[in-house]
Each structure stands twice: as C-alpha cells, then as structure tokens.
Amino acid sequence: MPTPKPISLTIRSYQVGFGDCFLLTFAYLAPAGGSDLRHILIDCGSTGRPTGAPSLKEVATMIAKDCGKKLTAVIATHRHADHINGFATNDGKGSGDVLRELTPKLVVQPWTEDPKAEREATAPPAGASGLRAAGRRRFVAGLEGMHAFAGLLLEELQRPGLNLSARARKQLRFLGEENIKNLSAVRNLMTMGPTEYLHYGKKTGLSKLLPGVKIHVLGPPTPEQYPDITKQRDEDAAEFWHILGASAKQLTAAGGIMPFARRFASGSRARGLRHPPHTRWIISRLKAAHVAQRLEIVRALDDAMNNTSLILLFEVGGKKFLFPGDAQFENWNYALHDAPKAAANRELLKNTDFYKVGHHGSLNATPKSLWKLFKKKNQQNKPGRLLTAVSTMSDKHGHTSSNTEVPRRTLITALQTESNLLSTQKLKNAEPWWVKTFDF
Hints:
Layout: E1 8-14, E2 22-29, E3 35-42, H1 56-66, E4 73-75, H2 81-84, H3 95-100, E5 106-110, H4 115-119, H5 130-157, H6 166-179, H7 183-191, E6 195-198, H8 206-209, E7 214-219, H9 240-244, H10 248-254, H11 260-270, H12 277-306, E8 311-316, E9 319-323, H13 329-338, H14 342-350, E10 354-356, H15 368-373, E11 387-390, H16 409-418, E12 420-423, E13 433-439
Parallel strand pairs: 3-4, 4-5, 5-6, 9-10, 10-11, 11-12
Antiparallel strand pairs: 1-2, 1-13, 2-3, 7-8, 8-9
Helix pairs in contact: 5-6, 5-12, 6-12, 11-12, 13-14
C-alpha cells in the first residue's frame, strides 16, 4: 500500500504581536472518504501585543477550535518568553491549560531543554571527550545562569532610586522579561505529551506522524558539533558561561551582578545627602557605564538563547517550508558553512517556497548568505515567487538610531521587494490571524 501523502498544507499565523504562534494543518485523504487533518503548533508566546489583539488565552482557544481540539504535535523552538509563555498554566485557567487539553502525540524542543542535559552537568555524556563535554556543560549551565541574571535584573528595576533613562529601562525590562525562566511553561511542555529533543542532523518522530513529509533538522548544533555555538561574534561573550554557571543565590551572595548604581548612589540619596561636587562627574559616568555593561551582557545572553532555536525545513508536495525560530548567525553559520553537509544544505535551501522570517525580522537572524540562496525570490512577482511571513511588532526591541530596530527596515524592504510578504503588522483592527493554503 503506497505511503499516504498530504493533499494540502494550511498555515495560520496568530496575532500575538511580538512573538510567534503558527499552526500547520496537513490534510490527507481519509481511507473512508473525507479528510484526515494533522495539526502542528509551532510556538505560542508574546511579549507585547497591539491594542485590541487577542490575549494568549483567547489565542489558545482559537487554536483549539482550528485544530478540532486535537494537536498532532507541538514544536517549541526555544525557551524565550515570546515563543513559549503561551504554554504557561494557571490553576486550569491559563492559555497553557487550554493547549494541554489538546493532548499532542509529540512535543519537540531543542537539545538544550532536555532535562538530562542538566543532570549531565556533573559528568561527560557517554562517548564525548572531556573537553567537548565541558563545552556542553558550560553552555547549558550558562543558559540557566542567564535566567538567574534576568530575574535579578527585573528585581533591580523595581527598586527605588535607580537612575536610568527611559530608553535604558525599557530595553532592560524587555530583555529581562524575555529571558526569565518561565517554570510553568517549561514544565507544561515537558509533560503535556511524549517529548523529543533535537539537534542538527537528528531524526525526528514528526516524520512518523506526518507520512509523506520529509523533515530536515538544520539546527541547533551542539557544542560537540560546533564549539562556536557557545560564543557570540564578540569573543568576550564566551567568558560569561563561567560566571553564569552559578545559581541565583550564589550570584547574589557574591555580588557579582548586583547593581553598581544602587550600591553606589541610592543609599545616600535616600538619606537626603549629596555627593561632593568634585565627585559628581565621575559618578555619573560610572553609573552610565554600568547601565551600558548590563545592556551588553543581557544582549549577548539574549543572542545565546536565540542560537538554541530549532531550524526545521518541511519538504512536502514538491515544496519547502522553512521555520527557523529565532536562530541567529552562529546557528545558521554551522548549517550553511561549517557542517559536514553544508554544501548539501545550501542546495536544499535554494528552492525554499515559504520562509518564516527569523527573530521577528531582526538584523542578524536572516543572514545575507541565506537570503542570497533563495532562488524563488524576484522583483517581478512571477508565479511561484517566494512567500515570506513575519510575526512582529515595531518599537519593542532595538532602536533605529543604532540600526538595530526590530523589524529591521532594510530587511523588510528586501522582503517586500523580492518576495510576497505576509506580516502580522498588516492585520487590520488586530485581526486574529492570517491564513495561507498550499495545494499539492
């Protein structure tokens, strides 16, 4: 008996503002007639929604309706809040409680979410060299330390007397909320169904649930596969793993990341005292430098979590659909240039038909080498033109003055000029989603 193949794929992007939430519905012909629908939810989270947009609980309720109250699988690309906080539970009344009731047959996450990864933090994985295992341990410990840092940062922002500009406070709050560990969502994802944890090149159980669909896992690599994944382009960021492997309690006790500005200034101001005139110049600059240092650290750590994103390519019906989460430069660099099958990966990606734009349109999540690969982009809007989709919200992350705004203007211009762009920002009156169907 021939293997069944999908006759269509419907992609829904829900209006979650700054976040991702996609439902993929693969339609098969049922043996007794009618259709057999298999629903894959990719992420559900947000750190900012436009006025009038549905709440995450309302989005979860819409997903339940659109999938007939049954999910085939859930894919959580990485742990950032704008991708998973919709899975948070609340005594049976949260968005995550609604999604849990959809009983997925499989929950897919990156290798960094495997609870065994933390247990292996005290011993090398079987067959791995001590040096490579140490790289994995430092990386996972660093991610945990990042959450500790983010939590303390949010506590600091609540303290009186902290002298920060509105812009610095906004950025620090966003990055703190984005990177704080959401235990409710993490635990829900871990237990809502059978789980698997993927890395570059690994086979996935999704293939059995989606016959006739070929699924390529193009990221993230492990430190054993690609040591540079533990770094950012700034080599100093590699040193953070040693510092951030400690627990929040240890970090607090050591004072290593306690706010310099508060220790230095807030106490004297609270007592109505003033610093001597000859010290004010250096104090203001020291406090400014400390703010810049904190921003530099949390940005590097934010990038590190993005580089744990799954990169999945679905190949079905002669078409290719690319979902890279928030994967950034290092993650992509391995797949495109340093992996043993990098040339084959580039060839595979050339005929991409649908590209879910990485990291809400940030400047470093769509490498130019990737964009140049796409053969179906063109400026003539010919049939078969590349379709791109971005779920995003302006004025939430980055700044135009530093050319780091999300979505990045130059990238959006290229997407609009050379592809058919679908954007949640184009939805009117905070409409709940856009829908696109591909027939095979």
